[in-house]
Amino acid sequence: xxxxxxxxxxxxxxxxxTERRKRPGDFRLESVEIAPDDSCPFCxxxxxxxxxELLAWRGNGSPANGPGWTLxxxxxxxxxxxxxxxxxxxxxxxxxxxxxxxxxxxVIESPRHGDTLATLDAGAVEQVLWACRERVQDLKRxxxxxxxxxxxxxxxAAGASxxxxxxxxxxxxxVPREARDExxxxxxxxxxxxxxxxxxxLRQEQADRRRLIAENADMVAVAPYAPRxxxxxxxxxxRHQALVEEAPRHDLAALARLLGDVLRRMNTALRLPPYNLLxxxxxxxxxxxxxYHWHVEIIPTLTKVAGFEWATGFYLNPVAPEEAAQVLRxxxx
Length: 333
What we know:
22% strand; 26% helix; alpha+beta; HIT family, subunit A; single chain; three-stranded mixed sheet
């Protein structure tokens, strides 16, 4: 029988549709295969095809915007928001608008075209996370920005326009609804119980262990109790902290190790799936440290959102999180 489950953070309901259950082999979306591309603008030697770098890791003293790097951060060539200008908030009768002010940056994770977060070593993944941390800290100095979203689209089915592995960072002048729902839910839980809801989730999942996928000394990966999508996975730091850009180096090193582990498990169990990776952090201008807890969400692209979901806001998930966690625990890496 199907189950309705309620997300303890946002209050969102999902339907775990066990009667429509699918095993990993039943999914038929394409695997991500990275084809060689001599014209890829993100490959080493093609630096002139991109905007000038904002940050780069170079171990050999090589000059900016040339070869010799291990990671580069550049402005997105086709940004959804631009830094230049003023917000110019206006009302049009009932409606509100402002200029499209923000920042849109790309972290090119490796000079090699075929690398992915699953194949890079833990040190290289840590470099990616540290670059995101550095850029967020820099962008926070701009008082127009209220929220930073760090995300990755892996594979065309997940929205990636280029095969070369990269992460994106967007600074927004507003707090988006998804983030607001999480913050408000976490605040309500704290006001009622004087405890962080994410810390409560961590304690319960470590005691229960049916939805626990993997862990190390500083990070825990779980299948959430009320997942929107099959094999949705959360990685949470054991230590309570609201802002990812304030995470100490050892936490990011631990995240790098566990992130690579989880992605390799998904590649084994789900046949190199496309996925979206999101880093959820607190708004940069709100004092939410007592009750918000930064975390990572990984969502393999295995199903499609259709009319029922759009009409109701309920997500239909054909795989129970307990089963998904078991499959990923058993996957060889």
